[in-house]
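Severity: low
Component: inverse-folding endpoint
Summary: output formatting inconsistent between runs
Steps to reproduce: submit the following structure tokens with default settings.
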């Protein structure tokens, strides 16, 4: 029987293990599989903490249904009926600018009516079709792309907040091609974003007229989807399906080396495991330590992928103490506004069952690549700064009835300029270690859908390797 070891029990490792077992069984291959997780719990960044009737998400609060990967995984697991869709009003997203919250316009007409972007800024945006082409052969930053195509104001008020919302990243260092490959493709294939939107809309109309099924995402990026008991329900359910004979927690892997009778020997702080196939789904900085002895060159490239810290601050309030209507998803704040927080999610407006009756839950984010030093602030200072910002942005003056602070020293990997080259170097070097694969959020997407898509690829490659096909 072939032996497989998966390292890391976040969504990437758990989904990879589950899919690997399913795909192997479909080919008549029964695996002896072990998943090794450093912590006493599985889930990694997916951690839904119930406390005093509030449901606080330590990390992600859901995935978007505009991409199929996580929905398909839930269907395979037979848990689609447990999914919880965000409330309809969560389509309303806001940007705090010039002392007020502006609703992010959903279409062109509303955009021109909105006061978020000034008239000179709108005029500059209207010039997008005439923007110069990207400099050839350059891995352009998101900021350079924004300035070139959309102008400085759109960069500050639209692109930078989006980058901070997804990556907690700094657009001046992040790579367009690695963070948003689809946008780079649209520019390459259609010569610009407006051109791409027009041509794609025309294509959709044609396909509809021909009777084809055409996807239409609800809202800007689809509907946020989770579970009644929080997003951790997904990783809990996968771990339960894999069973405790497969999932070993409290096992920190220290190295993967070449084995004597089998290709690889995986060492943890307390034991050793032989493996024909090893899939590392731990973050790149952990993979670097694990692979240091086996291949210093791979380890060295892995250490070049940085991560940004983030502090997640949950405040609960009595509903009657808040004047704001809280109808929507929440808001992001451009850096130029000089606030401490990156934005606030109105968690109890997005999903049901997030706060006790008569109370609300707000979740503010602090830090990221632009303000890494905020990760060191003591709790009292974090609370003071978040309260100051909630007063300015939402007019909240009272003290919260409930406070929880969650700190991520390494929250989200940063796909900075050169990331694509680093991935090519890693792939090339891994050619000399057949049966050793890397997956997870450090490489080709940080969203839960991206992690599941990468897990599908890793499981397929793993089975192909084990079956020699
Ligand atoms: C605050 C925050 C909010 C987010 N919000 C969203 C959101 O709303 N929607 C969305 O789609 N995405 C969101 N993300 C991103 C998403 O949560 C992550 O990209 C995703 O959960 C990463 O999963 P992973 O399994 O790749 O990594 P992780 O969850 O980091 O799991 C890696 C696992 O490897 C383990 N490990 C590390 N070293 C070792 C070792 N030596 N031996 C064994 N095990 C080891 C770790 O303990 C961990 O359990 C958010 C992220 C953060 C931090």
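Observed output (run 2 of 3):
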């Amino acid at each position: 029987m072939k032996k497989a070891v998966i390292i890391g029990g976040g969504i990437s490792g758990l989904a990879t293990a589950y899919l690997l077992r399913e795909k192997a069984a479909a080919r008549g291959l029964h695996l002896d599989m072990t998943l090794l997780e450093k912590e006493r719990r599985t889930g990694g960044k997916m951690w839904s903490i119930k406390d005093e009737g509030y449901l606080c998400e330590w990390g992600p609060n859901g995935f978007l249904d505009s991409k199929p990967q996580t929905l398909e995984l839930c269907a395979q697991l037979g848990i689609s009926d447990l999914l919880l869709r965000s409330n309809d009003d969560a389509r309303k997203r806001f940007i705090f600018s010039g002392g007020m919250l502006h609703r992010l316009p959903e279409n062109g007409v509303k955009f021109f009516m909105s006061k978020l972007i000034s008239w000179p800024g709108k005029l500059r945006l209207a010039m997008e079709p005439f923007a110069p082409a990207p400099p050839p052969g350059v891995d352009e930053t998101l900021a350079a792309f924004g300035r070139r195509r959309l102008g400085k104001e759109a960069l500050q008020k639209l692109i930078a907040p989006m980058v901070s919302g997804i990556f907690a990243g700094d657009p001046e260092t992040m790579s367009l091609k690695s963070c948003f490959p689809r946008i780079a493709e649209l520019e390459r294939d259609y010569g610009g974003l407006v051109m791409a939107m027009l041509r794609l809309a025309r294509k959709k109309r044609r396909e509809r007229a021909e009777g084809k099924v055409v996807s239409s995402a609800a809202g800007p990026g689809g509907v946020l989807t989770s579970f009644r008991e929080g997003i951790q329900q997904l990783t809990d359910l996968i771990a339960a399906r894999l069973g405790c004979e497969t999932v070993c927690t409290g096992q920190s892997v220290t190295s993967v080396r070449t084995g004597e009778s089998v290709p690889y020997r995986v060492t943890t702080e307390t034991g050793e495991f032989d493996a024909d196939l090893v899939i590392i789904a731990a973050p790149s900085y952990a993979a670097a330590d694990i692979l240091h002895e086996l291949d210093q060159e791979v380890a060295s490239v892995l250490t070049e992928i940085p991560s940004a810290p983030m502090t997640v601050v949950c405040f609960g309030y009595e509903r009657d103490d808040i004047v704001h209507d809280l109808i929507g998803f929440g808001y992001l704040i451009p850096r130029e506004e000089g606030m401490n927080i990156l934005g606030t999610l109105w968690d109890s407006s997005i999903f049901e069952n997030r706060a006790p009756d008569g109370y609300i839950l707000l979740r503010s984010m602090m830090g990221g690549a632009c303000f890494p030093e905020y990760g060191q602030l003591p709790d009292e200072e974090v609370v003071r700064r978040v309260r100051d910002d909630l007063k300015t942005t939402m007019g909240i003056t009272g003290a919260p009835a409930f406070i929880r602070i969650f700190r991520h020293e390494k929250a989200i990997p940063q796909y900075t300029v050169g990331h694509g080259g680093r991935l090519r170097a890693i792939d090339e070097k891994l050619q000399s270690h057949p049966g050793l694969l890397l997956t997870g959020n450090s490489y080709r997407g940080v969203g839960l859908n991206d992690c599941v898509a990468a897990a599908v690829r890793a499981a397929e490659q793993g089975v192909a390797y084990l079956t020699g096909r």
